[in-house]
Recover the amino acids of this structure.
């Protein structure tokens, strides 16, 4: 593996992009709708086969007790590897469930864009460099615009596309602006350099930590829009409602996964400088996000709008894990005399990643089921249209109920394990051994209480959907004209949810090792350059320590 | 053949309902016959297996020390050791759980017989949900791991939600949702409390275990790491949130009448018979052993809440015009008795309280079953629409009177044994308590006895109005059930389709309950001796904490009355 190059590492992405180009070009020259869906699945499978080649490399790495090998801007660690598999899985679910605007099936551009999205997501998972991270995010965003524009030819659909377009541009700008500050501090676009600067011995006595925090704040603002964190969430309900179920499914999963992974990468690198800002920000955002998302979802009549608020709420739960991760000192900072159990340091991150997977699968499945129950040109809109689905389509209703219960966090389903992990980690900040001052620990208890109450609130609207399907008499059967693909996607997602419920152990183990490798930025290709932290700031003056002490 | 060790039998009893549910789904042909036959066979087998396990349970807790007090213990790794969390699939029975476990199997069997002809819509779904509910109920009592307990605890919500929502009466959607949300809100807080307990233990011992006996031992007063009072109070509050809603304790009972009234007969029977006991069981299993000092601190308040439930439930029951609603409110009152016994903390009262919880399952289960049979015949739950049914259906009247006597505590039947023990224990507690607190406890004890009188009043009044007096039946009902039974024809209205008396199937559903009602009533020692050691162990810390509080208060009063002795002490030490 040591002879590998970046191109070899990028081979799965290359396959996807190549397939996408074939579909784009082929679509332009063929009349009618060809077998583009099948070709898309084929591309994803090929990409997966190539990705599986990395498996052996990891076995060697693990034998040598290393979590990652790195090759410059593209890195290969377990977080990137497992997230790539997640991306492929999401890709399969999306390509299966996507429908066109009429009975003829999806346009080739839609399938091509989806493949590009997946490639972007895999790139984001493996990027170890600010520029590449940004490129990966754009590789996700630009096909998203195409997808949204093609999703529904109605005024609402066009409004959704335009709304998402403008806000996404803004968020990209914010992210890039934040990256520029980080670059300014590190003097390099490599995340590893930022980390070594931030962890440098004299760095804390300069005003540079302030710049890093500003940069991270801007990045959070930019990514917050993609993850749908509350002050930046407001586009989501309108866009989900206006667009097709499959496009909404994509929005509920892909930008969220990408946003969380990029956030983790940046936060891991900037971590020494974040201080308490990191977890306080995450915790605050988490409380607002889950509460607002859940409470507003209670009033929704439109299924996709309801699910948009639900997806906002789930972003809130997820942030708890990130807050715990940033609050518990990691191994490199652990020299402060506090006992840090191995594994506990990244357990918050692990919980967040596991939750991300569980949520994504259930959400994709839900939208696939909704897509199946509607018609390509007129998707299912209101919750009451689901009335009596349990008698007319028992299998789909059962799957949808399964997703709803999992999203609500009912045991023994996967969503329960996700919430359990998040909450036990949050509680362990206060009760278990950790290095946070006792004065602020109780905030994690408060957030746990808010989180479980939110789970109970969320059950109210998930039950509305189940209640409509099972308890209300049927009036006007839903069209159920979504096609075989949506049905397959629903079934696949249901199988995955059941699998993660019954075999939560292996899935949790996967998120553990991914978190272990993602919590610390990977070293750059060469030996990490040890640059004196204050080199570009001139001599540290006497006044600087006071200033920075005040700023901390 | 398989081995018949208790471990295997316990596992089989948990697996059988799931296998049955799977079979029903696989062999579904849309008609009730096949589904209900499979369900009947499954519940019968489960009942036999569970009964065998329960009767193998040793009296007086003999030979249970080696397994930490658990009988038929199975302990296996479940999720693997992930991130240091050792979640285990650990099931076993002890004195607290064994009768509830058996009761779940018994009532489920009766429920299948009860639903035999009243479920026409989606029978396969109905019976498979019923079997899943059975698995959840038995699992929750058998679980020895906190997470496993919680998984079963919450899982029982899902089948019952559908049972109420699909096969319930007119307001079923609202009732199902309210039931689900109420219980879920409480139980997520309970969940938080349970996790906190786990983590507190972790911070003391470094062992991230979810095992209930381990936690109880480590955090109990003997284990060396009792929690400070303020933490105990928080944990007590968190645990109470869920269990008090399940019980239900007085101000949190509002979901119950609705859910009971709207549920189909089988749902009402299981809800009242078993699922309410989850609250009582949770208090005995978690609150008392884990937070004994908090229990002692809150004891007067808890007793007041219990007695408020007794009186309130009884008074509201008196005012009901709907039979099912009346029985539902009587449950509030009866569960108040159970909690009163549990919180009185004397061995007598605690045993009485837990026995009364089992009794309530049998007698109220039977009453709800009869309500279901009346509803099958007349399609009404209104008391005023019915009267003199004893003429029409003498067997039903016989069973109704029998279950009523059991419910109001007639000597010789099970209700008497439970109520007498718990009230005797409560009086003991009240008269053992000196000082200003004692008066309050005495008032509580006296009020509780008045609850017995009220209980007799509303139940006998119900029986009198519905089953005796002149015959009154709703007009135009009884269609579809007009089997040509010659026994109960009415001379005044010969053209009306005749309502038949209990069929053999319905008698078969009620007789098992009656057998146990007699058995407990005549020979309570058989049941008590198996419960007593575990109950003693669970409540002893809280009783000791209450005793210590009493002693301290008495000492404080002593010093307040005679300040003299303290003066020379101060004089001696101050120089």
């Amino acid at each position: 593996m040591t002879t590998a190059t970046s191109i070899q590492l990028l081979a799965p992405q290359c396959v996807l992009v190549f397939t996408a180009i074939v579909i784009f070009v082929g679509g332009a020259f063929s009349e009618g709708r060809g077998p583009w869906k099948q070709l898309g699945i084929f591309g994803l499978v090929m990409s997966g086969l190539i990705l599986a080649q990395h498996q052996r490399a990891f076995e060697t790495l693990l034998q040598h007790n290393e979590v990652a090998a790195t090759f410059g801007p593209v890195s290969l660690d377990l977080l990137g590897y497992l997230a790539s598999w997640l991306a492929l899985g999401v890709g399969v679910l999306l390509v299966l469930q996507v429908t066109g605007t009429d009975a003829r099936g999806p346009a080739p551009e839609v399938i091509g864009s989806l493949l590009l999205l997946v490639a972007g997501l895999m790139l984001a998972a493996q990027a170890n460099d600010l520029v590449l991270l940004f490129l990966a995010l754009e590789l996700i965003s630009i096909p998203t615009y195409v997808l949204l524009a093609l999703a529904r030819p109605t005024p609402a659909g066009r409004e959704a596309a335009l709304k998402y377009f403008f806000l996404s541009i803004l968020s990209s700008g914010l992210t890039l602006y934040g990256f520029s500050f980080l670059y300014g501090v590190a003097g390099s676009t490599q995340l590893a350099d930022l980390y070594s600067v931030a962890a440098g011995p004299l760095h804390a006595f300069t005003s540079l930590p302030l710049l890093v925090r500003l940069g991270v704040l801007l990045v959070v603002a930019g990514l917050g829009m993609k993850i749908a964190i509350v002050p930046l969430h407001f586009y989501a309900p309108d866009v989900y409602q206006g667009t097709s179920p499959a496009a909404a499914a994509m929005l509920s999963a892909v930008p969220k996964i990408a946003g969380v992974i990029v956030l983790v990468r940046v936060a891991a690198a900037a971590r020494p400088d974040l201080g308490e800002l990191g977890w306080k920000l995450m915790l605050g955002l988490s409380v607002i996000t889950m509460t607002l998302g859940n409470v507003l979802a209670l009033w929704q009549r439109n299924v996709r709008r309801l699910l948009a608020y639900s997806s906002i709420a789930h972003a809130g739960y997820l942030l708890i894990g990130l807050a715990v991760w940033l609050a518990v000192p990691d191994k490199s900072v652990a020299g402060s005399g506090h006992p840090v159990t191995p594994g506990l340091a990244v357990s918050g991150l692990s919980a967040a990643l596991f939750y991300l997977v569980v949520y994504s699968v259930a959400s994709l499945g839900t939208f696939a089921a909704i897509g199946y129950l509607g018609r390509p040109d007129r998707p299912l809109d209101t919750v009451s249209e689901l009335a009596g689905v349990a008698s007319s389509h028992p299998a789909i209703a059962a799957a949808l109920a399964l997703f709803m219960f999992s999203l609500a966090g009912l045991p023994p389903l996967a969503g329960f394990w996700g919430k359990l992990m998040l909450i036990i980690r949050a509680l362990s900040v206060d009760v278990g051994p950790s290095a946070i001052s006792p004065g602020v620990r109780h905030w994690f208890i408060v957030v746990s209480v808010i989180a479980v109450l939110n789970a109970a609130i969320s059950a109210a609207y998930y039950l509305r959907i189940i209640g409509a399907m099972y308890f209300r008499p049927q009036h006007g059967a839903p069209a159920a004209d979504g096609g075989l693909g949506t049905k397959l996607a629903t079934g696949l997602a249901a199988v995955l949810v059941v699998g993660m419920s019954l075999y939560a152990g292996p899935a949790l183990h996967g998120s553990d090792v991914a978190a272990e490798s993602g919590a610390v930025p990977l070293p750059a290709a060469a030996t990490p350059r040890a640059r004196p932290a204050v080199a570009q700031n001139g001599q540290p003056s006497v006044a600087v320590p006071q200033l920075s002490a005040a700023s901390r | 053949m398989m081995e018949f060790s208790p471990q295997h039998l316990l596992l089989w009893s948990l697996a059988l309902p799931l296998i049955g549910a799977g079979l029903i789904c696989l062999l579904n042909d849309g008609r009730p016959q096949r589904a209900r036959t499979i369900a009947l066979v499954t519940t019968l087998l489960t009942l036999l297996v569970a009964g065998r396990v329960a009767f193998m349970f040793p009296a007086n807790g003999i030979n249970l020390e080696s397994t930490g007090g658990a009988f038929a213990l199975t302990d296996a790794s479940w999720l693997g050791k992930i991130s240091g969390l050792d979640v285990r699939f650990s099931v076993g029975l002890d004195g607290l759980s064994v009768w509830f476990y058996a009761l779940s199997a018994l009532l489920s069997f009766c429920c299948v017989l009860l639903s035999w002809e009243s479920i026409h819509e989606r029978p396969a779904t109905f019976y498979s949900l019923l079997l899943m509910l059975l698995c959840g109920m038995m699992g929750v009592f058998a679980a020895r791991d906190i997470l496993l307990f919680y998984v079963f605890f919450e899982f029982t919500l899902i089948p019952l939600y559908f049972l109420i929502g699909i096969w319930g009466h007119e307001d079923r959607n609202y009732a199902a949702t309210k039931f689900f949300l109420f219980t879920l809100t409480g139980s997520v807080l309970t969940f938080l409390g349970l996790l906190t307990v786990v983590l507190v233990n972790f911070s003391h011992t470094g062992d991230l275990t979810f095992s209930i006996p381990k936690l109880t031992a480590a955090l109990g007063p003997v284990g060396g790491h009792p929690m400070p009072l303020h933490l105990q109070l928080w944990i007590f509050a968190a645990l109470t949130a869920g269990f008090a809603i399940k019980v239900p304790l007085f101000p949190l009972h509002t979901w119950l009448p609705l859910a009971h009234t709207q549920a189909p007969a089988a749902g009402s029977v299981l809800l009242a018979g078993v699922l309410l006991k989850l609250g009582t069981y949770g208090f005995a299993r978690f609150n008392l052993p884990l937070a004994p000092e908090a229990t002692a601190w809150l004891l007067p308040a808890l007793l007041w809440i219990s007695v408020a439930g007794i009186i309130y439930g009884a008074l509201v029951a008196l005012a009901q015009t709907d039979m099912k609603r009346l029985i539902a409110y009587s449950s509030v009152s009866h569960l108040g008795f159970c909690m009163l016994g549990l919180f009185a903390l004397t061995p007598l009262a605690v045993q009485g309280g837990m026995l009364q919880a089992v009794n309530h399952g049998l007698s109220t289960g039977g009453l709800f079953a009869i309500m279901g049979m009346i509803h099958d015949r007349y399609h009404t739950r209104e008391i005023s629409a019915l009267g003199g049914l004893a003429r029409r259906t003498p067997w039903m009247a016989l069973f109704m009177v029998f279950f009523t006597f059991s419910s109001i505590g007639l000597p010789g039947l099970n209700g008497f044994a439970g109520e007498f023990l718990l009230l005797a224990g409560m009086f003991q507690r009240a008269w053992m308590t000196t000082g200003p607190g004692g008066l309050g406890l005495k008032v509580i004890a006296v009020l509780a006895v008045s609850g017995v009188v009220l209980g007799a009043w509303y139940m006998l009044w119900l029986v009198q109005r519905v089953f005796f007096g002149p015959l009154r039946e709703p007009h135009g009902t009884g269609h579809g059930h007009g089997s040509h039974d010659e026994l109960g024809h009415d001379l005044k209205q010969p053209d009306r389709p005749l309502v038949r008396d209990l069929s053999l199937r319905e008698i078969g559903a009620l007789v098992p309950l009656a057998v146990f009602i007699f058995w407990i009533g005549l020979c309570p020692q058989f049941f008590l001796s198996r419960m007593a050691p575990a109950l003693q162990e669970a409540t002893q810390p809280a009783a000791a904490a209450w005793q210590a509080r009493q002693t301290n208060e008495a000492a404080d009063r002593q010093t307040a009355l005679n300040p003299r002795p303290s003066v020379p002490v101060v004089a001696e030490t101050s120089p």
User: Anything to note?
Assistant: Chain B has one domain: 6-477+500-552.
